[in-house]
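G.,

No rush on this.
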Amino acid sequence: MVLSERKRLTVDGYWQGQIILADGSSLWLAPFDRRMDEGEADMLIDEAERLARERGLAAPQARAPSPREQSNETVSQYFTRWQADRKKHGIRDVDTESSRFSHHIEPLIGRLRIQEVTSDNLEDLVTQLENKIAANAIKFKTANNVWAVASKMFGDAKSSRRRELRVRADNPAADVRGPDPSLHVKRRKSYLYPTEFLQLLSSEDVPVRWARIYALAVYTYGRAGEQAALTCEDVDLQARKIELVKQLDAKTGELRETKESAKYAIPIEPSLLPLLEQLIREAGGKGPLLQADHAAGQVHGLPRNDASAKLRRHLQMAGVTRSVLFADDEHRKPLTFHDLRGTAATWMALRGDPPLVIQQRVGHTQFATTSLYIREAEAVGQGAEIGTPFPPLPERILEPVRRGGRDKKRNPLFSQRVFERGGRDLNPRPPA
């Protein structure tokens, strides 16, 4: 049996395939001596599966339960089968859905037969979720996502496109309302002033690699996945624009479409141009613009899961201590890595960019989202005390990275190809 993620495109442009063997182990298929296109990957996977079946090495195919088995199927058993089908058909959030089910849905109705669950049972689930919100055990967004899993599952139990998943004559979730929207308390976000941002990037205590990551995050207005997927080929220095056409999945490291499948170009901020030129030179003019930090356990140039905590720690190390950046209460949330994107939107509004231009550059699908940053900029106004938006970047992050020297310790830009060939850096930087 082959996983739904039976093939992937690596950041270095290789297609790889995967098959699952009878013992549960996985086998990755890829010719590392050359690039393989998607069609070749499909052929290689099919041939490997055929050979595995002939030799009795392939994992058994999943079997749909008989009608008698379905009649005794519990909610937990049905969920497992439902999730396997969703994974097979390329649903990306299966692991997250499994976590939501095991933590919030399964303890309440997991042992019930899928056919005997009633609307009352699901109303009890909603009440339980609302109680958790009131107790500050979970946020409203989490509760809403849990309800989405439950309602989708029972919707498919009645009217799935696949006959083997249709086990009910009705949908008990159809007339049940989810968690009360009035319980949703939206906390205010924070953003950096230009003076604080320069202080962060100029600090000798902040590694050059991370200073560059922060600069790209703000000056390209992008999401972390879009930023990590940028290649030298996406940057058109002559036309002064950057193409945003893909993103790296933070969990799998695979390339996929951008959010909302949007593909667009943004102009290069003048202050960012010197850094882009330097990154392209260091990458040899091709491949990932943001190299992976293998000493820190990265396979791609994605900021790690602790990027938000690291950003706040770097701010403190740089002497940026404005209290609202670190506040975590019912009214405000602490600054996150994603808020660097909001910082860019606010700066554009401060600079006086037209609202529709801001919406297009940041990639908001709803203008209401953009208007939040415009209102924030109007409340702050422009003043010398917060600095000028998108200021020139400090020289320390524009200088070439010298292998083996002091800069190497601060900013080891590793070669993706060396890593994929099994090589390792001989002078890794200590964790920041």
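When you get to it, here's the other one too:
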Amino acid sequence: MTFKQSTSPEVIGICTSQSLRRFDLQLLRSLSRQYEIAQWEYCQNPDEAIDLDIAIATLHEYLQTCKGSVHLVGHGIAGLVGWLYAKKYPEQVRSLTLLSVGVNLATSWHSHYYEQRQLMGCSRETMLMRTAFYLFGYRDQAMLSWLANLLKQDLDNSFVPHSLYAPIYIAPTPIAVPMLVCGALDDYVIGGENAYQKWRLYLKDRDRLWLSDQGKHFFHYSQWQTVSNQIRSFWNSLALNQAVSIKQQIEFR
């Protein structure tokens, strides 16, 4: 499954995990039916230090080749990269959509995995199987084994700013760009509705918070159509507000 990537995108899907990028594709494919879209992927070099500033600089280098500002969409750590970028370069960002990102912006399935590794005395393989179940909800052992292998690849090869002994915390502050925060009520990683409601302390009037009844941490994969509708509704509201503002400016003159 793939989608036609645009050379002059209006929308950029941020990806920081080559092994898990497949879970973003159905949503991006749906959005690409109405918008010019591309997926930007940050590939971590095994010999490089994991540095958020390098990821942001690399994203900025790419976005400078795009025509005008763009909508950014990111899940988990990719959402963190998008938020940090939008904070630093708001003029480049038309809007920011965060999927499964909590008010501790650095919270991810990786941080919970490492937390559980410290609390429980089971093997890495067993913990990855448990994590796969809590992330996706499948009970079939073959499916869980396949997912656990993907998670292992993600831990070993992707841009993960956490480690077993060094979890990080990044608190949000209000940013200038319009923002849509989406999550699932049964997402054990973020902490469900109460955790997501904390976002309201940081949302502006034009920002939105939307929660799916189900779907867990990768809700945008299983609920891609509903998530796509919510994102397009948000973008349409921004375009309408911009049109009204322009009309009011013309009438004032």
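Residues 210 and 230 are 8 Å apart (CA to CA). The chain has a mean pLDDT of 88.

Enjoy the weekend,
O.
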